[in-house]
Design brief:
Helix content is about 75%, strand content about 0%. The chain has about 280 residues and is mainly alpha-helical. One of its GO terms (cellular component) is plasma membrane. Keywords: Cell membrane, Membrane, Transmembrane, Transmembrane helix, Transport. Belongs to the binding-protein-dependent transport system permease family.
Length: about 280
């Protein structure tokens, strides 16, 4: 077999393997999507096939009382402001550590590293007490404050990328009379746009799909997020599984739309981060 044929055989093998893996990954999504258009009996008798009779009543039932729309609005508020605060704090902290190298910034970096290593589950009780002392439990503001703690993760992603920037840029800007704020706004932010895009994408999907913090810190129905709506669709003794699948599809749609429109920046951000980081 010559080299060309071996390369062609390898390419075909890789394509078949990738397609097989893609199909395996797509099966659960297919099951959820197609089940949202079935009745309970049809879902049991024919779990993976097309519906014998297409029904859209599950979607009508999901939107009937308006709670899913309110949950969407709550999740949108929490995700937008939570990620915005994370990116601002994380990028400014990384800039401070890189721009002003001193014992204070080294100690700050060490403290952030320790904070990053502590699992969230171990801090739930003190976080709950802290939020209760400020009357922030069971409020969207309290949830946004908690998500602001993920700024540590943003800091570590951004500081690695920012450390690869040439320090001569900062020195030249300082000679021209630019202060720290102007250097951060006019020079640093445009240069770290790829890693900022990556951070925004990761944190948006993580915050939107988060279950742990809303389930612990939210108790009012009016403050529930979309993920809690999916969880509440499962009843203790009997569950309307087609309705559960329908709410799951509704919760996944914004994530797919977000990924579809942002995939170009996601790929470019990941590639840039892998090169620079």
């Amino acid at each position: 077999m010559n080299t060309t044929r071996r390369m062609m055989a390898g390419k075909i093998t890789r394509t078949v393997v990738v397609l097989a893996l893609a199909l395996i990954c797509a099966l659960p999504l297919w099951y959820i999507l197609i089940s949202s258009f079935k009745s309970s009996i049809d879902m049991i008798v024919n779990p993976m096939g097309w519906p014998k009779q297409w029904t859209f009543s599950n979607y009508a039932d999901a939107f009937q009382d308006g709670t899913i729309i309110r949950s969407f609005f709550n999740t949108l508020i929490v995700t937008f402001f939570g990620v915005l605060i994370q990116v601002i704090i994380g990028s400014m902290a990384a800039f401070g550590v890189i721009y002003k190298k001193s014992a204070f910034t080294r100690i700050t970096g060490s403290v952030l590293m320790i904070a990053f290593a502590i699992p969230l589950q171990a801090t739930l009780l003190p976080l709950f007490k802290m939020e209760a002392s400020f009357n922030l439990v069971d409020s969207l503001l309290g949830l946004i404050v908690l998500y602001a703690g993920s700024s540590v993760f943003c800091y570590f992603l951004i500081v690695g990328y920012m450390s690869s920037l040439p320090m001569e840029l900062f020195e030249a800007a300082k000679i021209d009379g630019a202060g720290a704020g102007r250097i951060y706004m006019k020079i640093v932010l445009p240069l770290i746009r790829p890693i900022l895009t990556t951070v925004v994408v990761f944190q948006t999907m993580s915050t939107w799909n988060d279950f742990l913090l809303p389930s612990v810190f939210l108790s009012s129905t009016s403050n529930e997020t979309v993920v809690l709506q999916v969880y509440n669709a499962v009843q203790k003794f009997s569950t309307n599984w087609p309705l559960f699948m329908t709410i799951t599809v509704i919760a996944l749609v914004p994530v797919f739309v977000f990924f579809f429109f942002c995939q170009r920046w996601i790929v470019s951000g990941l590639v840039a981060g892998s090169v620079k980081g």
